[in-house]
Structure formats: C-alpha cells, structure tokens
Design a protein that fits this description.
Layout lengths: L5 H9 L2 H10 L9 H11 L6 E5 L5 H9 L3 E6 L2 H10 L8 E4 L13 E7 L8 H11 E12 L17 H8 L4 E7 L2 E7 L1
Parallel strand pairs: 1-2, 1-4, 2-3, 4-5
Antiparallel strand pairs: 5-7, 6-7
C-alpha cells in the first residue's frame, strides 16, 4: 500500500507522476498484495471476463492485471507511469499462454491504448493520488464501454488508529463524493482500512 508521510504527499503534488513514482519502484518499494478476500470481491463484483477487454490503471507490479487476465479471463492491459513498474510486471508474468499487454503510460494524457473501450477498468490504490480527480474520472468514463464497470480500491481516511502516523492516509468524504457522483450504480464493500467501489454508468 502507498503509505506516505504528509511531506511525501506534498512532494507528490509538486512532481509529475512519473518523476514521483519511478524512483520508488526502481528502489524496490512494493505495495499491498492481493489477498483472498479481495479476489473474492473481484469475482463477485466483476464476474467472468470471457475475453472482454479490461484496463488496470496504475498496474504497479502487475498483480491485479495478471489476476484479471489469467484468473478471471479478461483480455487485460496494465498501464503505469513508472517504467520500472512495467518492467517488473513483465518479468513476473511467467504464466504460459497469452499474457496481458503492458504499457508505460499516464491515463490522463495517453491516447494510444490498445482498445477504444473497456468492459472493466480497475484502479487499485491509485485514486487517492490523482491530482485532478474530476479529470481522471472523466477520462475513465470516456474509456468505459456501455454497461462497463469501474472497480476502485482505496483507503478511507481515519480508519487507522488515532495514534497511527498514517491515520489521515486515504480519501476524504469529499473525495468519495467526487468519486461516486454521476454513476447510475454504486456498490461498496469494506476490507479493513480499504473500501472497494463498483461503479457503473
């Protein structure tokens, strides 16, 4: 999980996404792995892929991308702005057969994705760090196919113990309101300090 101090958060806001995240991945920083409770929620909320296109935004080491592709059966593209993250994801993708597509890209500015629309778009531990959240969500809506689903996993601020220095990490109620506005279907499921959202147009 992206556990950052307030000073690191301020630095993030002052840098481009690639300039901020690339050194962390290159230096060996790793984040919260998928756990069975989360993969069960994925299966329940997204359903089988049946070869439909999926896009994993901020794919990191590719754990979620590979799960969508190999376990759920989506034809998945993983994108991340950090070249080291993409290189790691490709190196870890050793499953025989057809593998996900990997792309070093910033979702807010890249127009060269392999599909024009996606049945599923995922965003795990990323929404918190989007500097322009309305712009980010507008881009997601542009890429989501009719009837598609947007899966967001994010920490909720204030769920950690008051004495935890990362108590305020996560999205605020205002951030959550921006996230959930303008969707016809909003489903949530809690997972310790995280909240999982399934959003449909």
């Amino acid at each position: 999980m992206a556990d950052h101090t307030p000073a690191q958060e301020e630095m993030h806001m002052l840098q481009s996404p690639q300039d901020y995240w690339e050194p962390l991945w290159a230096d060996g920083r790793r984040y919260r792995p998928l756990v069975p409770a989360e993969t069960a929620l994925l299966a329940a909320h997204l359903g089988p892929g049946r070869g439909r296109p999926a896009l994993d935004i901020g794919s990191g080491d590719g754990t979620l991308t590979r799960h969508l592709h190999h376990q759920l059966g989506y034809r998945t593209t993983g994108i991340d702005c950090a070249p080291s993250a993409i290189a790691l994801a490709e190196a870890l993708d050793t499953t025989p057969g057809t593998n996900p597509t990997w792309r070093c890209a910033d979702i807010t500015s890249d127009d060269t994705l392999p599909d024009s629309a996606y049945a599923v778009i995922t965003c795990r531990l990323v929404y918190r760090w989007a500097a322009d959240k309305p712009g980010f969500l507008h881009r997601v809506r542009q890429l989501l196919a009719p009837g598609g689903r947007f899966w967001v996993v994010t920490e909720i601020a204030g769920r950690r113990a008051p004495t935890d220095p990362l108590h305020d990490l996560g999205i605020t109620s205002a951030d959550a309101e921006i996230l959930t506005a303008r969707w016809s279907v909003v489903r949530t499921a809690d997972l310790d300090v995280l909240r999982c959202y399934t959003l449909q147009p």
